[in-house]
Amino acid sequence: MIRSALFLLVSSLTLLTGCQSTNGPTDDRIPVVCTTSLIADAVKRIGGDRVRVECLMGPGIDPHRYTATPGDIRKLSDAAIVFQHGLHLEGKLGDVLEKPRPGQRSVVITRDLAESRLLPGDGGDGPHDPHVWFDPRLWADCLPPIVAALSETDPESKNEFEDAARAYREEILAVDRELEALVHSLPAERRKLVTSHDAFRYFGARYGIEVHGLLGISTGSEASTRDVGQLAGFLATNKVPVIFGETSVPSKGLKAVIDSCEKKHSHAVRLVGGDDALYSDALGEPDSPGATYLGMIRHNTRVIVDALKSRP
Ligand SMILES: [Zn+2]
Fold first, then answer.
1. 301 and 251: one domain?
2. How confident is the model at residue 177 (pLDDT cuts 50, 70, 90)?
3. For residue 282, how far is its CA from the centre of ligand 1 (angstroms)?
4. 92 alpha carbon to ligand 1 midpoint, in Å?
5. How far apart are CA 55 and CA 273, in angstroms?
6. Which helix (H) or strand (E) holds 243?
7. Which residues form the domain of 98?
8. Distance in Å, CA 90 to ligand 1 centroid
9. Distances in Å between the alpha carbon of 270 and those of 68, 85, 235, 255, 300?
10. CA-CA distance, 38 to 56, in Å (whole number)?
């Protein structure tokens, strides 16, 4: 009798404890907010299961035009670390990101890049061109500020973060060499890349491609008739057979360039879009080739090289 009463007591205690654990142990991962999907990808690679990553701008979102939602403000106020790109990429999030929150680390991941490695912005003396991820060697140098902030927040996991960052960096640099070889398989006179906006200058500088965007470095303004005419003239003069759409920018303006090429110069140009559109300022959906940074730059480079190899 006593024995079975004891058994019952023990069982109910176990049940009770069991119940408590189904309520979930508190999530002890570091709550992190990243502005762009590119940064979120890097933080996940380095932080692994020690981080809970929220991203403000998901797949296909244009960072130049993005403004904060009430949901974003909530996410930001819950974060232990906020990672942002800087170099005015998040042009309209500036005020929200600058608001100080007690006890929170705010990290600009491009902060350690020497100015001499940065390309000028539109017009020369404004802010620098922010699209540094298109030179993988620069992107690899944006990882240390992430490692530092995670390690300060969770010193016990410092070695894990450093190991993960080292492995990721090596992978990035290996892909960089692979892309260099791929681009160099293209005859030099065919290395001319025309896209919706000027996101690919670092890509061009790294691999030796001449790049032109219909819009400037930011997508904040519309293309003028003059811009359309000039780009059409460039395509016709250089017999460039294709122009490339981007997943985060509407391709309406590019269609005007194609029309102008045909009407004024009798030069046919094909728009590379749809599934082949380039990932410029945002990653793709989770099941797409652009779901990760390495996937996106590989996809872009293959599409660019294949299309520029084809005859008009
Ligand atoms: Zn951009």
1. yes
2. very high
3. 9
4. 13
5. 26
6. strand 242-244
7. 30-178
8. 10
9. 36, 33, 11, 9, 16
10. 11
User: What is the Cα–Cα distance from 100 to 104, expressed in whole angstroms?
Assistant: 8
Residue 3 domain-assigned (yes or no): no
What pLDDT shows up at residue 101? 86
Tell me, in angstroms, the distance from the centre of ligand 1 to residue 130's CA: 7
Q: What are the residues facing 98 on neighbouring strands?
A: none
Residue 200 alpha carbon to ligand 1 centre in Å: 9
**93, containing H or E segment:** none
CA 197 – ligand 1 centroid, Å: 7
Summarize pLDDT for 53-106 with one digit per residue, the tens. 999 999 999 999 999 999 999 999 999 999 999 999 998 998 889 877 889 999
Distance 129 CA to ligand 1 centre (A): 9
Does residue 54 sit in the same domain as residue 164? yes
In-domain check, residue 221: yes
Cα separation, 283 vs 291, in Å, equals 6
- With cut-offs at 50, 70 and 90, classify the pLDDT of residue 204: very high
Domain count, the chain: 2
Going from the Cα of 249 to the center of ligand 1, the distance in angstroms, rounded, reads 9
- State the Cα–Cα distance between residues 22 and 15, nearest whole angstrom: 10
Do 105 and 169 fall within a single domain?
Answer: yes
38 and 160 co-located in one domain:
yes
Look at residues 182, 300, 309 and name the one whose alpha carbon lies nearest to residue 242: 309
| Whether the Cβ atoms of residue 195 and residue 213 lie closer than 8 Å to each other | yes
Separation of alpha carbons 31 and 75, rounded Å: 9
